[in-house]
Please model this.
Amino acid sequence: MVNLLPLEANEKISAVLPIKDFAPGSYVFAATRLGTVKKTALEDYSHIRANGIIAVELRSDDALVDVALTNGTKDLLLFCDGGRPIRFHEDDLRAMGRQATGVIGMRLKDGEKVIALIVANSGDILTVSEFGLGKRTKIEEYPVHGRGGQGVIAQQISQRNGRMVAALYVVPDNEIMLITSAGTLVRTPVSDVS
Model:
């Protein structure tokens, strides 16, 4: 094992992004738990010190959810645990410097948090609730709105369903593995999810 990054107390790795090169026209898109988003030119990260650099300035009560590599022309989806996603064009926000805080990507209701960031491609989105209920939806069914709204209902939140815990991009020939908090794993074909 190699120590890749010296971490501060109470800090942990929350995203890993594979990079081929730092070509102009590529962007790192970041989303936080409280609905903030930020787009930064990939080349701004080409020179990194051994102890790291600031990628996004976070409030003390916020945390990074995910990052994605984009080309500046994509649609992005943010999903919150309240069962709602918002889809917006990447060009709804300008590229910012590394130390910028970002802007509102999704307005959340009290107690909600962002759980997933997805770059729109052709295919389906699989959403899963905390009590194991899954739903597959064509990505085209998610309407494009402006950044900063509350989104649309993707999955009903109820005592039976629980909160949404995951949203991911899938294609019909994928299989998914669901892992419980007790460590039980179930594998199922995506095509079995209606």
About this structure: The first strand starts at residue 27 and ends at 32. The chain is about 0% helix and 35% strand. Residues 80 and 114 are 4 Å apart (CA to CA).
